[in-house]
Design a protein that fits this description.
Elements (H helix, E strand, L loop, with lengths): L4 H11 L4 H15 L4 H14 L1 H18 L2 H10 L6 H17 L8 H21 L4 H23 L6 H12 L6 H31 L7
Length: about 220
């Protein structure tokens, strides 16, 4: 039972707002040592887990690349390019992205998008550029609203699109939960029934994005 002290370390560390990485390492050390492992064995286990999870290392490669691209003017170029398409409003742009994101997620390509690699460096600046092409310079609160809608669009498209893909972890999680409740459902059935939900989510959020256009273009040229 002493090995459960790691749970208390995590709760206390997060409550005290200590660095999450330090909290996790401390909890792992406490759990391992009290569970009968030596400190070196615990550190070795942490290193092996990190090395086995190759995708963790990719984060440290992707983020600097995105930072360099932004420093080189990626966001500025995205605004300029999108401003050249006069018929492409903020809402229409986000609807197009939502359709693409939902289709690719339904095919299992969930990595083609996301907040750090797509929304922040490309989608949000393009959405703001589409608004600036018609309204001129935007007030800070208007820019924040557009960025929030861009992030929400990615979330909605991914969450309701990925459930259509039969081999995704969320489908297996739903099947496992229903199995515990005594309900036997095939993964294919779950995927098929996720299609109407995805369509409904697309229509509802698409209507919200069209309403965003009406709100934006009902404003004055300075965006206030």
């Amino acid at each position: 039972m002493w090995s459960l002290i790691g749970v208390a370390v995590v709760v206390l560390g997060f409550t005290a707002r200590i660095n999450p990485l330090a909290v996790i390492v401390a909890a792992a050390l406490a759990t391992g040592v009290l569970g009968g492992m030596s400190p070196l064995a615990v550190i070795a286990a942490l290193g092996k887990a990190f090395n086995d999870s190759r995708y963790v290392s990719l984060v440290w490669l992707v983020l600097p690349v995105i930072g360099l691209l932004e420093r080189s003017g990626l966001q500025v170029r995205a605004r300029i390019v999108i401003a050249q398409f006069g018929a492409l409003t903020t809402g229409r742009l986000l609807i197009l992205y939502m359709a693409l994101r939902q289709i690719t997620a339904a095919l299992g390509l969930t990595g083609l998008g996301g907040h750090p690699q797509m929304v922040r460096p490309l989608l949000a600046p393009m959405a703001e550029g589409a608004a600036e092409a018609r309204l001129g310079p935007l007030a800070p609160e208007v820019g924040e609203m557009i960025r929030a809608q861009a992030a929400a669009t990615d979330n909605v498209a991914l969450v309701f699109g990925e459930d259509i893909f039969i081999a995704l972890a969320s489908i297996l999680l739903i099947k496992g939960f229903l199995h515990q409740m005594g309900v036997e459902v095939a993964p294919l059935q779950l995927s098929l029934w996720a299609i109407p939900t995805a369509i409904a989510a697309f229509l509802i959020h698409g209507a919200r994005l069209l309403r965003l256009d009406r709100r934006l273009f009902g404003r004055t040229g300075d965006g206030r």
